[in-house]
Amino acid sequence: MSGFHKEKLASLIRDEISLLITRELDVDGALVTVTDVELSPAGESALIGVSVIPSSKKAAVLAALESHRRDFQRHLIKRLKMRHVPFIRFCLDEGPSAAAAVEKHFLNK
Domain limits at 18? Predict the structure, then answer.
């Protein structure tokens, strides 16, 4: 898979998953943001990084994402109209919450 094609596919997946999270996922007051989509070299799988604020909701959000993974996968198949859509997996991106904690620490001084 060429570099341009991988970047374009990753961007499309990020946009679609972001929309689905907003529309379909009940996250009980948590802010969930898709931060990154990394495709495997051959494009058969995609690791989707998400940040969750507040951090106390991370486990619940990750569980909800995993329980909706098949629905998200089916949506991608229909929406992207590709023969082989990458198998999606979710992981927590700790970067934004770590940055928020540092910012909170310095603002409280």
Answer: 3-107
